[in-house]
Amino acid sequence: MMRRKNGNKHYFTRMGTRKKVLAFVRVKPTDDFAHEMIKYGDDNKSIDIHLKKDIRRGVVNNQQTDWSFKLDGVLHNASQDLVYETVAKNVVSQALDGYNGTIMCYGQTGAGKTYTMTGATENYKHRGILPRALQQVFRMIEERPTHAITVRVSYLEIYNESLFDLLSTLPYVGPSVTPMTIVENPQGVFVKGLSVHLTSQEEDAFSLLFEGEANRIIASHTMNKNSSRSHCIFTIYVEAHSRTLSDEKYITSKINLVDLAGSERLGKSGSEGRVLKEATYINKSLSFLEQAIIALGDQKRDHIPFRQCKLTHALKDSLGGNCNMVLLTNIYGEAAQLEETLSSLRFASRMKLVTTEPAINEKYDAERMVKNLEKELALLKQELAIHDSLANRTLVNYDPMDEIQIAEINSQIINLRQIQEVFNQFRVVLSQQEQEVESALRRKYTLIDKNDFAAISAVQKAGIVDVEGHLVGEPDGQGFGLGVTPFSAKPGKKSKSKKTFREQLSSLARKEGASSPVSGKELDVSMSKTQMTPSSKEGDVKDMIMRERETSSIEPLPSDSPKEELRPPRPSTPPPKPVAFEDFKNERGSEINRIFKENKSILNERRKRASETTQRINAIKREMDVTKEALNFQKSLREKQGEYENKGLMIIDEEEFLLILKLKDLKKQYRTEYQDLRDLRAEIQYCQHLVDQCRHRLLTEFDIWYNESFFIPEDLQMALKPGGNIRPGMVPVSRLMSLGEDDQDKFSQLQQMLLPEGPDSISFYNAKAKTEQKHNYLKTMMGLQQAHRK
Ligand code: ADP
Ligand code: MG
User: Fold this and answer.
1) Does the C-beta of 28 come closer than 6 Å to ligand 1?
2) Tell me, what DSSP letter sits at residue 308?
3) How, if at all, do strands 101-107 and 249-259 pair?
């Protein structure tokens, strides 16, 4: 096997590896197992059939009585779980790496194909390959945060060479007005008109599956269509883009899960009308399927007869060839079915001989490619511009060169080392300039090291720089001296916008009668590497100390409340945080606390509604299952009693008709309720986000307030510059997450999670919620820091 690694990605393109179609056999459990005729090999990979001569005679002339079939596995008394592990797990896992995969169930009607594929939709434990594959796909997506992976599904039914959409969003009315067609293009094969549904979570995908199953049953009754006479293809489409934007490769794959029509030979025994037609179509399509697969395995063949029937045509890019293929043959264990069992096993062993050559479906994102090239071009142009200016060249033209220019270039030798040297020189020039600027400044100003707090605070006490390190009292006269505002003055007009950290600090300083005036006009001398103070006269400074001026740029916090203006003297020992938190909520934090509570009550109300809707959905689902059961019972009764046919139309009794109507109605209800639930979920998620944000804000503000009120010496507060290190991160993450979460919250969250997918989904949602919370926390912190920096 050759493995080629694509850049820094972990996809591999397998070349020259031929793989066999995997063939498994599943035996339907029975109390009447034909022990004398069916024997399993010790390795569970072979099955021997022994036919008694007298049964055999009269069927064919051939006298052979013993057969031995070597397969990839024989599953008897196997749980749905084991079947999935053995048959499907690998195929699904490889699909996420870009390999198409097809799993087909083949066999006689009643042998367990649908049970294997779909399983019992009413019982989680007995769910089949289909729902398990969806779960695996979503689980694997969770494990690959480096990729943005989308999942789509479709459900196609082929009956008598007509195509039906089992997930049609329109009411199910049979063949649509514009019949679906199979179309081929360079991207592959697709069915035009077939609805393909984007599903962002496991649950949505399940819901579609249930709907498809209900449609299948409804159609089998209303259109007199025998569901075991049709082929059903459930397809999961996966598309994975790297989250690294520069990565222009992406992969696509399809997983086809095929429940084939019953393979029994019907044509012989004098069937007529509908049954004969069905039998002919099935026999044909199954034998075309076999022909196509065999042709695919034959490396000398270049023509594969895909178009002979709808089944092979629709599966063209997913059969044999470059995809992973598994055939699961369902057989009965009873003696009475041995003829058909033999025929099924022959089919399986023929398929096992076929080899395929799996390959990744790798595609290129044209948009990303163009963007990457543009970026590269811009960088190269920049580099050229630097190069030119260093070489004192201007207006160099980089259009395609003429022959003379090319010849000139060829005569020069430019290597990487020369270019590196150019950049080294460039660095030297830069650092010289920097030094020159600094010494020029030193001549004019007294420079203080930015980290020298003592010096800074001394200078501030003298009122030379304000808290932000801005110069006070620039000679243009606008900076100060425009009236005195009493310290108790209320902040300007209340505005809804947030106040930055710096503004909070300034206003705090004012309120507490701080000795440092605030700069009137923002002078754009920020502290970069060193603090700069003009060598000004002492007298001016003293004048300024008592002056303070409101600037229009100072906006109060929404959480500012008038109560906090006169803060009582600081206690010698700070109060415990829980006590202080209560005070904070009544004071500076009152507004944000109110919003927090409001959001929380909305959230709780939505959660309650979601839980009620979930209960209703479960009830509807149960009733759908009961109705389906009843319908199937009616149908089997009808079949036993002999069907009434009238000019090709079947007559069904009223009871069955009413059941069909009921099922249809339930399906409609299910869909409506499910839509509601989905909307509610989205709303809940949004509200949760808001609540989290509020909670974080509340706690962070509290932390700032607590530190300022009880810990940070006032003069140090003044010395701290924006973005200082005492601000964020005083509350441990664990507390952020648990604070304000009452028991009702937790209970309704739990209910919310106990959804129809069973207990497996709890950890799934839990993990998701936690990641989201953590994400929110980090986001808030970053936002806060940014606000401080402003
Ligand atoms: P097919 O689709 O091949 O016609 P089904 O899957 O509908 O057959 O199976 C026929 C019946 O046998 C169903 O009632 C199904 O529940 C039951 N059945 C099939 N296989 C199993 C199995 N492995 N364990 C339990 N019940 C099974
Ligand atoms: Mg079936």
Assistant:
1) yes
2) G
3) parallel
**Separation CA 651–CA 644 (nearest Å):** 6
Answer whether 118 contacts ligand 1 (Cβ < 6 A).
no
Helix (H, G, I), strand (E, B) or coil at 672: helix
Kindly give the number of the ligand 1 atom that is closest to the alpha carbon of 115: 6
Cβ count within 10 A of residue 225: 20
Atom of ligand 1 nearest to the CA of 111: 3
Q: Looking at ligand 1, which atom is closest to the CA of residue 26?
A: 23
Rounded-to-integer distance, Cα 105 and Cα 724, Å: 66
Taken in order 513, 514, 517, 520, the sign of the CA dihedral is negative
Q: Look at 32-46, 358-372, 601-615 and tell me which has the smallest mean pLDDT.
A: 358-372
Q: Is 109 in the pocket of ligand 1 (CB under 6 A)?
A: yes
Cβ of 329 closer than 6 Å to ligand 1, yes or no, is no
Which residue stretches of 642-719 are H helix? 654-706, 714-719
CB of 86 within 6 A of ligand 1: the answer is no
From atom 20 of ligand 1, which residue's Cα is the shortest distance away?
A: 112
Q: Under a CB-based contact definition with an 8 Å cutoff, are residues 470 and 523 in contact?
A: yes
pLDDT recorded at residue 358: 74
Ligand 1 atom closest to the Cα of residue 118 is 6
* 777 to 41, 528, 696: CA distances (angstroms): 59, 30, 7
Distance CA 325, CA 352 (A): 10
Relative to the CA of 108, which ligand 1 atom is closest?
3
Higher pLDDT, 91 or 278: 91
In the reported structure, the alpha carbon of residue 574 is separated from the centroid of ligand 1 by a whole-number distance in angstroms of: 72
Burial class (CB in 10 A: 0-12, 13-18, 19+), 394: exposed
Answer yes or no: is the C-beta of 110 below 6 A from any ligand 1 atom: yes
Give 356: exposed, middle or buried? Use CB within 10 Å, 0-12, 13-18, 19+: buried
Most ligand 1 atoms within 8 A of CB, residue of 77, 87, 115 to mutate: 115
Ligand 1 centre from 123 Cα, in Å? 14
CA distance 629 to 678: 28
Taking only the tens place, the pLDDT of each residue in 253-304 is 999 999 999 988 765 455 567 777 777 787 788 888 888 877 877 777 778 8
Helix (H, G, I), strand (E, B) or coil at 48: strand
User: DSSP secondary-structure letter at 734?
Assistant: H
Helix (H, G, I), strand (E, B) or coil at 746: helix
Question: Hey, what's the torsion of the CAs at 62, 66, 70, 71, to 10 degrees?
Answer: 80
Could you tell me where the DSSP H helices lie in 360-447? 366-390, 403-411, 416-444
Tell whether ligand 1 has an atom less than 6 A from the beta carbon of residue 112.
yes
CA distance 28 to 51: 19
Q: Reduced to 3 states, what is the DSSP secondary structure of residue 446?
A: strand
CA of 541 relative to ligand 2 center, distance in Å: 93
Token pair 């200078």 in the structure block, residue: 459
For residue 80, give the ligand 1 atom closest to its CA.
23
Model confidence at 516, pLDDT cuts 50, 70, 90, reads very low
